[in-house]
């Protein structure tokens, strides 16, 4: 217990899903939380996003752990507004030690307009960069930056071995995650002399609202007109090496906690896959 005691963590996409889990886990280990979320829908993203009451619930869970929560409704695509939100949180808590760039969307519906590609890249890549870059003036030696990637970062395209159909949004998602991985590598090299660490966590399927949505079911089961969760769960395990449909948000949070803590004080530039062996199914051993 207490692995991040006395630290302040910024988490984007914090209103639900992985972001809420990260905020709660870090709070349980002693961190105060600046929780940011758009709390509104994005037109090309065909499943509903979080609402303000979801962000309030995250704050309640943080406070239940005995830590302080500062919430901000902000869009990671808006660098100016996001920077102002971060500044307000840092002003309240006096410091910033951990940045978790987690906000993301996955508009996987086939037949969406090209704007779906743009929106996926703007949230999943530009949003990551905006959050980190707007935070950098507050960071110091010993700080930890963690970006949420995806096993999709290691796929050649948005179409994988399960036969998924992702459309322009899926292509944008895969592209964004690939570039996030590269970005983390190069930013880690840049910030290493400052003793600021930068790492990525790459999940497989995660048991969240993003996965459990009609567009995602259809992406996994393009052979059916209106697939249900039960229909999709038959093929969910095809992504992983282990015979499971998905991991839990807490599984990702444990990796985030490790990278945020002093136990990882010399760990930087890593691409940490929490994918139940998914990478092993798509990449042969290279000997490197």
Descriptive notes:
The chain is of the alpha/beta class and 288 residues long. The protein has one domain: NAD(P)-binding Rossmann-like Domain (Rossmann fold). Helices cover 40% and strands 12% of the residues. The protein is built from nine helices and seven strands. It has a seven-stranded parallel sheet with strand order 3-2-1-4-5-6-7, with helices on both faces. Helix 4 links the parallel strand 4 and strand 5. Helix 1 (17-28) packs parallel to helix 2, helix 1 crosses helix 8 and helix 3 (79-93) packs parallel to helix 4. It is globular, with a radius of gyration of 18 Å. It comes from Mycolicibacterium rhodesiae (strain NBB3). Keywords: NAD, Oxidoreductase. One of its GO terms (molecular function) is oxidoreductase activity, acting on the CH-OH group of donors, NAD or NADP as acceptor. Belongs to the short-chain dehydrogenases/reductases (SDR) family.
């Amino acid at each position: 217990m207490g692995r991040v005691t006395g630290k302040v963590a910024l988490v984007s996409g914090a209103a639900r899903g992985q972001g809420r889990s990260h905020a709660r886990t870090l709070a349980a280990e002693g961190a105060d939380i600046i929780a940011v979320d758009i709390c509104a829908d994005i037109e090309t993203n065909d499943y509903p996003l979080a609402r303000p009451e979801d962000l309030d619930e995250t704050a309640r869970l943080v406070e239940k752990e005995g830590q302080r929560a500062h919430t901000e409704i902000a869009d990671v695509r808006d660098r100016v507004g996001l920077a102002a939100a971060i500044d307000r949180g840092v002003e309240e808590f006096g410091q910033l030690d951990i940045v978790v760039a987690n906000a993301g969307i996955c508009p996987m519906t086939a037949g969406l307009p090209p704007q779906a590609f743009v929106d996926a890249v703007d949230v999943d890549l530009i949003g990551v960069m905006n959050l980190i870059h707007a935070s950098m003036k507050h960071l110091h030696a010993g700080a930890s930056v963690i970006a949420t990637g995806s096993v999709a970062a290691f796929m050649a395209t948005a179409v994988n071995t399960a036969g998924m159909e992702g459309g322009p949004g899926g292509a944008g998602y895969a592209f964004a995650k690939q570039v996030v991985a590269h970005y983390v590598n190069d930013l880690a090299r840049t910030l290493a002399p400052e003793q600021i660490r930068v790492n990525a966590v790459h999940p497989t399927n995660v048991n969240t609202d993003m996965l459990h949505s009609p567009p995602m079911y259809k992406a996994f089961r393009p052979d059916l007109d209106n697939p249900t969760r039960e229909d999709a769960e038959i093929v969910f395990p095809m992504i992983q090496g282990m015979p499971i449909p998905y991991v839990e948000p807490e599984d990702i949070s444990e990796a985030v906690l490790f990278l945020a803590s002093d136990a990882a004080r010399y760990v930087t530039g890593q691409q940490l896959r929490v994918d139940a062996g998914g990478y092993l199914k798509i990449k042969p051993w290279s000997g490197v």
